[in-house]
Every structure is written in C-alpha cells, then in structure tokens.
Amino acid sequence: MQSGHNDRLARPLTPPWPACRLPCRRGCTKGPWPGHTGSVDVDHKRDSGLFGPDSVTWQLHSDPMMWVAGIRALYLQALHPRAVRGVMQNSDFRQDAWGRLMRTANFVGTTTYGTTEAAEKAGARVRKIHAMLTATDPDTGERYRIDEPELLLWVHCAEIDSYLDVARRSGIRLTEAQADRYIGEHRESARLVGLDPEDVPADQAQLAAYFEKIRPDLAAGEDARDVEDFLRRPPTPALLVPARELVWRGVAEVAYASLPPYAHELYGRSAPSREAVNLQLRFTGTMLRRIPARVRWQLPPKHIIRAMSRLGPGSRPAPYKLGR
What we know:
Pfam families: MPAB_Lcp_cat. It comes from Streptomyces ureilyticus. Residues 58-289 form the ER-bound oxygenase mpaB/mpaB'/Rubber oxygenase catalytic domain. This is DUF2236 domain-containing protein. This protein has helices spanning 7-10, 42-45, 56-60, 65-77, 81-90, 93-113, 116-131, 149-169, 176-185, 187-192, 204-214, 222-232, 241-257, 261-267, 274-289, 293-297, 303-311; strands spanning 134-136, 143-145. It has 17 helices and 2 strands. Strands 1-2 form a two-stranded antiparallel ribbon. Mean pLDDT is 85; it is low at 1-44. By secondary structure, the chain is mainly alpha-helical. The protein is 57% helix and 2% strand.
C-alpha cells in the first residue's frame, strides 16, 4: 500500500504555496489550504492517496469527458456474456441503473482523489460484495463466481481503454509514455478489486494484446442488448423526456460511436469513420469543458474539492498540466 507521505506521489506539479504556520505533527511546510484551521493531524490531511497530483490519472480523471468514457465502457463491458450476466442476475440494473452509474462514478472518484484509507476501504467493500455473488449460465447450468479474475480483468481493461481512448480522441494531448504510464498506474485500481497487478496490462502494447486475445469470447447476447437499449433510452419521467432526447441521446450516441470496430460488428452495426467520430468527440469535449471546473466539481460527492482542501491549491487537477 502506498504511504500517504510518499514523496513521489505527493510532489505537486506547481510551486509550493506559502508556509503553513499551524502546529503540524511532521513539521509540514505546505499550506495553508481551504479548511486548514486549527491543529490538525497532517499525516491524514497530507495523504495524496493511491495516485497523487503527480500522476496522469489525477489530471485525466478531472476532465468531463470521463462521463462519456464511462458510458463507452458500459457498452464495451456488456459484450462479455459471463461478465454482463453477473451484473444482470445480481442487481436491479433495469430499475436502478442511475444509482449503479453513480456508485461506479463514486468509486472511481474515491480511488482517484480520496485518501489512501478511503480508497482501500472502497476496494474492500467491492471485494466483499463480489465475493458473495454468483451467476448461472442459462445454457449449461454452470454456476460461477462473479469475482473470477477473468471477469474482473475484462471489466478493468474495458474501463481503462475507454477512459484513455475518449480522452485522447477528444483533444487531450498525451504522449505515448504518458498513455503507458496511465495504464500502468491502474494496476493499483485493479488490485483494489481483487486482481494481482502482475496479471494486469501495464502499457498500451499489453492492453492491445489482451483485447486481441479476449475477442473470441465476446458476443452481443440478450443481456448486452438490454444494456444497449437502456443506455440509448434510459427510463425518464415524462417531463424530462425532451431533455433526455436533447442531451443524453447525443452523449450516448457519441460514446457508442467511439467503440472499436469489432464492438460495432458484434452489435450488428457498421462502424462509423474514425475521423467523423473524432470530430464528434472533440466537439463534445469542447462544449463540456466550457462549463467552469469549479461549477462541475461542486456536484456531489465533491471528490476533487475535498482533495484540493486536503492537499492545497497546487493539487488542482487539469489535463493541460500533462503537457508541462
């Protein structure tokens, strides 16, 4: 487990702020920051979590296009019959899909911007829940655990590939080394859900090899079609249907369009041209990024606001910092 005072992770990307004059246990010379008043336990307050402000993850996950990437990940994850069956047989996805989406977003936010303790606790909760759940193959009657490493690895890789693909194609400039570093950093998030980090792709080449190997196991079955149908037309109160058609449908469609060609083939549709999808992603990214970050970050559960309060203004995440 990473220490909360790990110098590599805690080192800010911008110069230190004025010296803190509060009675810190380790003689902290950083601060003051919002909410830092009175005597505090700096061992906890200065904990930069699993990744920290010096990571690619810290900067990338603050971008609003991560919501589009999350929807893409759901489309992709649904193509593994055993994995999606585990979701459909163990949750009220159809009735509480929004709740599930928000719980997933909260987990990603906690593991990215929360303290080491909060991230570890979130991972322990996920592992505990998964350990109690099984699914049944309707064709063979086989009963299997949903925390099988094969299934956890598929969910992880589909998610990381989606975040990275959407970010880069929507206009965030990442070097090849930074893209590799991002994938490698998420061996930590894979560990949290129960995977051995050594079994998880560490760079783009390994991730591409994984998808090439897993493709014969993928299919768009009935469960995948249910997920696809929900993402395109989620249940919405009558008064909000116009908003769904105006806003959500466009976001869901660009997320779907960004899927790799083999995913389009499995869903039974022709893949759009990559150039046209890139234009859509850049346009969507431009529009979403015009919403001030401070406005977006005020939405619950405020992971980024709390991280900045804990670590100081120099920890403010922004993808443009990756170019420094």
